[in-house]
Amino acid sequence: MKAKVLFIVPYPINTAPSQRLKFEQYYSIFQQNGFELSQDSFMSQNFWNIAYKKGYYFLKIYHTLLAYIRRLYLLFFIKKYDIIYIHLWCTPFGFPFYEWLIKKLARKVIYDIDDMIYLGNTSENNKIIGFLKSTQKVMFLAKNADHIFTSTPKLVEFLSQYNSSITLIPATIDTDKYKPNHTLDTNEICIGWSGSHSTSKYLHLLDDVLKGITQKYNIRILVMGDPDFHVDGLKNLELMSWSLETELHNLQRINIGLHPLPDEEWVYGKSGGKLVQYMAVGIPIVATAIGPNYD
Q1: C-alpha Rg value of the chain to the nearest Å
Q2: Interval 77-122: pLDDT, tens
């Protein structure tokens, strides 16, 4: 009899790196080894498309209410699963009442956390609701999960205060898929960065450097994941949205990968997934010498 696993996650499938590189890329392998999988995302695809954009407040409220209704409906089906696998949180706001209900109904709970979300960080475009976020959900899940998967030694150190059953799994890449492009054009050097709207603020640490080298040399700056990125005076800037279909091709166009980070606590929860991607496609990297980047 196949073991049934329900993944309760924040984001739609194949959209967020924290889900894709941690467990979604292994779904077919889990299924081949006798697991029956289901995934329930808090955000619909339509919600995801606007969630981190400026404005759209009424639509965001509407989609949030719909998501909470779907989560309530999900409670009726929890008992039919052998394992409930929770990534980051079940619901984003308030006290951990929903998480308490899941724990009461579930046979086994696995908690997967790969960011320091207990610090309460909120994206710039959603600061207005930042006060509604609760770090108590992280603490409750950490204390009550049957097992925890996490991605950095810093997170292991923090979570060990609440739970002794922890496995460290850093970001991983499918090297059968992510391979170097040996026909890369070197007539124009392409310096690239891959990330998202919420992490592109780190790329601004290099604004003056990027402006200086593009004015002096034949260099293209490729930014994938934040089509709104802008630097006054920066020449030869190419912007694109991230998509699963184009990600590999665009990574293979890059000659040098960038991974700048500030020295702040949030950074120490990152597992260097961007660096692993760069290396898998054979890209030399310029990265901040900090935390998990050493590994």
Answers
A1: 20
A2: 999 999 999 999 999 988 999 999 999 999 999 999 987 877 765 5
